[in-house]
Amino acid sequence: MVNITKDYFSVRQICESGQCFRLERLDEAAVDDKESNERHSERYALTAFGRYLEIEQKQNEISFQCTPEEFEQVWEEYFDLKEDYGRIIGLIDSADAYLLEAASYGSGIRILCQDLWEMIISFIISSQNNIKRIRKCIDLLCKKYGEEKQTEAGKHYYTFPTPKALAAASLEDLYACNLGYRSKYVQKTAQSIVSGEVKLDVIRKMDYKAAMAELCKLSGVGYKVANCICLFALHKTEAFPVDTHIDKVLREQYPQGFPFEKYRGYEGTLQQYIFYYDLGNCETREARSQS
DNA sequence: CATCAGGCGAGAC
DNA sequence: GTCTCGCCTGAT
């Protein structure tokens, strides 16, 4: 068990921000109970890099259920704990009310350092899809093609499938995982990696521009998906993925163009604040229209 | 019934 | 190079 105190860190916001599809809330019911919220803590489970980690957070106190060695070697980097997000938020133009509000709303978000292969497949699946179904697809893929493991506490979990496992999958079986027309992209991409046509280790050493070009060689990976992979796996924080949400916000809030030149190297971090804020606004609208 | 969800690939021009 | 269209599937 590792306990830390950290500001600008919210597991809930990281979970909801849709950059990681294998981080899930364990105590959904308790969180919804507003009466017990005064001293409540939230519990989450994460599967990444072949490991399973449970996390508990109460305000700015977070406990990771792992050894100090594992925390230092794996999770500290994974959650980007050495970066000062307060400083990044401080860079925002004080005249930009929208961006300030978005950053304030999602101030606990961090740009995770996730596995390259997992992000490639995850974001191929994300295209023209919603977060709930993306999670379901990935869950099915892991159960069907991942390796079953269990923790010392006896908790069973599935690792993310290897390129080899997915390259060998039939289109029929991939459709059964609810991937739809993305099935052929996943199969082709897995085959490109297994054949060595595109090399993950080489991409890891590339700069942003070169990595983008290489990733775009993969089937199902276009400019938007490649940017997501650069941001969430390669930690290229200059990557600025433009999806339907971001496109809408840029048109509505920045008709003269987003001031990228003010935020060199932090474009992707700001993109996440904007995305998460707009996602939240959409959900609020839906909730209102239902009542 | 149509439209949309963190787009992409293929084909037309 | 830019534009258009079709695409699995579930939710609204």
Overall description:
The protein is of the alpha+beta class. The chain is 49% helix and 11% strand. It is built from 15 helices and 7 strands. The protein has helices at 11-16, 28-32, 68-78, 85-90, 97-105, 116-125, 131-145, 163-167, 171-176, 183-195, 200-205, 208-215, 223-232, 244-253, 267-290; strands spanning 2-5, 23-25, 42-48, 51-58, 61-64, 148-150, 156-158. Strand 4 (51-58) and strand 5 form a beta hairpin. Helix 5 crosses helix 15, helix 6 runs antiparallel to helix 13 (223-232) and helix 12 (208-215) packs across helix 13 (223-232). The protein is globular. It starts with a strand and ends with a helix. The structure holds a DNA duplex (13 and 12 nucleotides).
* Overall body shape: globular
How many individual domains? 2
Radius of gyration: 19 Å
Number of helices: 15
In CATH, the architecture of the largest domain is: 2-Layer Sandwich
Side by side, the strands of the main sheet go: 1-5-4-3-2
Helical coverage, percent range: 40-55%
Instruction: Please identify the structural class as seen in this structure.
Output: alpha+beta
Low-confidence stretches: none
Report on the biggest sheet. Answer: 5 strands, antiparallel
Instruction: Give the amount of beta strand, in percent.
Output: 5-15%
Q: State the CATH class of the largest domain.
A: Alpha Beta
